[in-house]
Amino acid sequence: MTVALEQLHYTSAPPGPDGSGFRFTAVSAGIGPEILRQAEPVLGYEPPRDAPARPDDAELASFPVTLAFTRLADGSGLLSRTVYTGADYTGRYGNFHAHAVHLPHGAVLPGRLLPVEAWGSPTWRSTDPGNSTTEPLAEFAPGGTFGREVLTRFARERGDRLAAFLADVRELFAEQAGPQLVLVEQDPSCVARWVALACGALPARYAAELTFTTYTRRPYRSKHMVVGIRQDAEFGFGPAELDHQYRVHHGAGGPSSPARSSLWAQVAAQVWLAGRPELFRRATNGRAAAETTDRLDEFGTGRLAALALGAGIDPTADGLHAAVDWACGHAREYDEAFWCVFVEGMVASAANGKLTSEPEFGRLGAALCAAGWPECVTDMVATAAVRAVLRAPSSTGAVDRRLLRLSTAATQVLAAEIGAALRAVVSDGVAPLQRILVLLEIAEQLGVEPGSESSHLAGRLAEALVGSGGQTAERASALLGREYGASLCSAVLDRLNDIVLEGDPWAATTALANRHIDWKSADLAEYPHLRMVLAAPAGAGGLPLLRHLLNAPVVLSVSEDPSLLRTVYRLAWPTARPGIGDALELLAMLGSDRLRSAGLQHDLVAVALGSTPDDVHAPALAAALLRGGMAEGREAAALEALVHSAQVSSGEAGSGFTGRALALAYRARPLEPAIARLLDDAVANRVLVGFGPSAWTGTGVCEVLLAEELVTLANSGDEGLLSAYQRLAGETSMLDRMRSDLRYPAACFVAWQSMPGASQLWDRTRQRLLTEVLKPLLRRLSPDELAEIGRMVGRAPFKIPSGGSWAEQWKGWHRPGLAERFGLRRRSERTARPTAHGRSPDLAPPPRAENGRGRDREDGR
Fold first, then answer.
1. Residue 68 phi, psi dihedral angles, 5° rounding
2. How far apart are CA 711 and CA 754, in angstroms?
3. Strands of the 212-213 sheet, one edge to the other
């Protein structure tokens, strides 16, 4: 709405009807007293503190001019210009003259001028008109000082703060308005230029609402959005003012607020720096404003970025993405020439690294194709999209198929480029499969065959199909399911067959059951391993699955091809080996020859060697494996050790079993810990127990003591064996045996006093057993029982280690102290007469015989 402008003048004037001094000297009739009351403080003027007190005419011209646009309480506007005039009518300095026009709410200046364009206007008066009533202005001449060249040059001079300034200007119109802007410039015309830059970039409705003053000495009193001051203004420049209360931009390089940014401000700054302010009006036309209900989006950031790119301006990376986002939804706007420049700008930005996301080209190209633009546009963006993929080694996004409907010439050019790239990336063994699939999808559209790289490619595709799924597997299967990928299927089957042969047949089930690919029966005829995988029911395993597959018609050639038996085995036990029982049944069912020809002997040997001491059937499996010749070297010795441990424990092992155990353990180095313990425990227990009571006929320690085995054990110095011997000697079962039959403690004494110095470990072991096991046991026996042990020790036929007799050895070692002798005497009074074998009637009978064959060997010795 354009109206005649009511005007008013304010200065120091001689006495009149309204008094003297500073007063309104001329006012249009339509301005009421309330407007005058609000206008008077706005029109005041204080010269700079460093201004001359009595300026001459030349100095008066250097005083700052205040151009201000003020919003009054009723929503109307006051556009004013105030200049310093020096002396008043009395000759006193300090006078100024203010000329203002009033704009009713919703009204604009004639010619739709913006308030800042009144800077330098010839309409302004610097003297009183001489009459108290002045007519409204029907016209208002623009200042004419802020043309494109002037503002562009100023924008470039202040380029380091331009984007930050425009970001703060935008915040003034946010839902929660940002703080006032304080512009520090010695020349108020520079402040006016800042305001002109802001108004030029703002949508028209906001440019008309921007309030400002180009100069004030007391900025704290100002209510304007933009406040211009000089460096000597009464302003503190403190941290709170710079960081929170105001947004300060210092034109002379002084303290400023920390720069803030926004995408619109970045793009707008680039438009100003390029000298293309007309783009602002095109970006904020009525259609752009109608596209959104968000006030801040009325600035039309995406459209402005797109127009900038279409005008040859290179925006920032974020600006490019905003431009593409907008362009994808407005591909029918503007003309062919615009889109050609737009795409060229995108290509240039991609080349210099600003635009790194190739899907941007794809999205835009698809939109342009849908909009029906000719090939000169779509070929350009399609070529750019494909080349963006080629430039980005990590690219995994797809190019829209609609975009690759190219002219013949463009197709030939891109086909050559994508073919070379595809050959290079397929031959690269470390290239991500997603990358290969992206190039293949483009090659498919351009009719480029993979050529000599098919075998490498098929291997990578097969690996994707047998994986755990996901986008890569989905894309690979979709490609193979289309006509383009059909030629690759045979090579993929070759690789799947290799994967099965390499030991993971279940991995191929995912690929063979793929819903996208129609595997032909004829294709699978040459792959019995793959057909066997298909014959395996899901969820089955172990011996039931093995029997099922061996009886299936599809695998009748198992007997002819041992590798098929290996595949059956791996299907039955894909992640673990069979148990001891299953392994025994496998041997019985298939025989060692077939299992060995299929290369499964190592798995079964590992089953036996991985057994635990409580696997009672492990020795039987070991014996069966040895009979079938399924182990050699160290493994065979370990299996023999496992068998020998069972024979020693059962008493089947004859004389010299200790030496044989040591020899087997040496040959099987490093012997599995479980088998080593089993063997040590068996030998140690047999040496402690002796031949067993069923073989006894006399009353001497030779009935118990296995002298030959003991000598071997003592001289071995084997830590594991002697540790087991010491541990088992102290266990409850052995202590019970020694208490129940006195030949055991007698034999133990003879054994543990024998062969001193045989080995350091034996000396430590026997001394500890004498002290910690035998002595505590003897303290609990009666004198008669002790005497019986002494008599049996004295009859021991073995050589005395230090000369003399065993009776003397016993007496020298077993010498009870006073307290012990008193206890023995008391116990002897309560003890019944011993039986024939020296066993008290209240003790348990000796254990049953374990082996009767050792007696003859002992007597013979």
1. -135, 145
2. 9
3. 19-27, 6-16, 93-103, 77-87, 66-71, 212-213, 226-229, 180-184, 246-250
Q: What is the SS3 assignment for 806-849?
A: HHHHHHHHCCCCHHHHHHHHHHHHHCCCCCCCCCCCCCCCCCCC
Residues 237-289: tens digit of each pLDDT: 999 999 999 999 999 889 999 999 899 999 999 999 999 999 999 887 744 44
Q: How many CB atoms are closer than 10 A to CB 498?
A: 13
| Mean pLDDT taken over the chain | 83
Which token pair is 585? Answer: 């049944």
Spatial neighbors of 238 by CB under 8 A, at least 6 apart, are none
What percentage of the chain has pLDDT greater than the value 90? 43
Q: Name the residue with tokens 């007309």.
A: 278
| 336-355 burial: b if 16+ Cβ within 10 Å, else e | eebbbebbbbbbebbeeebb
User: Does residue 670 have a cis peptide bond before it, meaning omega lies within 30 degrees of 0?
Assistant: yes
The angle that helices 719-729 and 673-689 make with each other, rounded to 10 degrees, is: 50
Q: How far apart are CA 100 and CA 116, in angstroms?
A: 13
CA angle centred on 568, ends 562 and 571, rounded to 5° = 145
* Phi then psi dihedrals of residue 306, to 5 deg: -65, -45
* 796 CB-contact burial (10 Å; exposed 0-12 / middle 13-18 / buried 19+): buried
> Both tokens of residue 38?
């609000």
CA quadruple 4, 10, 13, 15: dihedral sign: positive
Please state whether beta strands 180-184 and 246-250 pair in parallel, antiparallel, or not at all (unpaired).
parallel
Pairing of strands 246-250, 226-229: unpaired
pLDDT of residue 835 exceeding 50, the answer is no
Which backbone phi and psi does 520 adopt, to 5 degrees? -75, 140
pLDDT at position 513: 67
The rounded distance, in Å, linking the Cα atoms of 772 and 338 is 102
Q: What is the pTM of this model?
A: 0.58
248 bridge partner residues: 182
Residue with structure tokens 């990358």?
435
CA 442 vs CA 385, 421, 465, 558, 673: distances in Å: 11, 11, 20, 44, 59
Cα separation, 836 vs 85, whole angstroms: 146
Tokens at residue 511, please? 């690929």
Q: How far apart (Å, rounded) are the C-alpha atoms in residues 124 and 143? A: 10
Tokens 């003897």 belong to 778
CA 856/CA 629 separation, integer angstroms: 35
Q: At what angle do helices 188-201 and 263-273 cross, to 10 degrees?
A: 110
Give the pair of three-digit tokens for residue 359.
């899907």
Provide the token pair at 9: 């003048």
Q: What whole-number distance in Å separates Cα of residue 100 and Cα of residue 68?
A: 9
Q: In sequence order, what DSSP letters do the residues of 329-388 get, joined into one string?
A: H-TTSS-HHHHHHHHHHHHHHHHTTS---THHHHHHHHHHHHTT--HHHHHHHHHHHHHH
- Say which residues have a Cβ less than 8 Å from residue 760's Cβ, sequence separation at least 6: 717
How many Cβ atoms from other residues are within 10 Å of residue 837's Cβ?
14
Q: What is the pLDDT of residues 508-528, one digit of tens each?
A: 777 776 666 767 655 677 778
What does the pLDDT look like over 313-337, one tens digit per residue?
A: 988 888 888 888 888 888 888 888 8
Residues 637-681 pLDDT 10s:
999 999 999 999 988 998 899 999 999 999 999 999 999 999 999
In the structure, what pLDDT confidence band is assigned to residue 156 with cuts at 50, 70 and 90?
A: very high
Question: Is 450's pLDDT higher than 90?
Answer: no
CA distances to 325, 436, 440, 448, 450 from 421, in Å = 29, 10, 10, 11, 11
Q: How far apart are CA 25 and CA 134, in angstroms?
A: 10
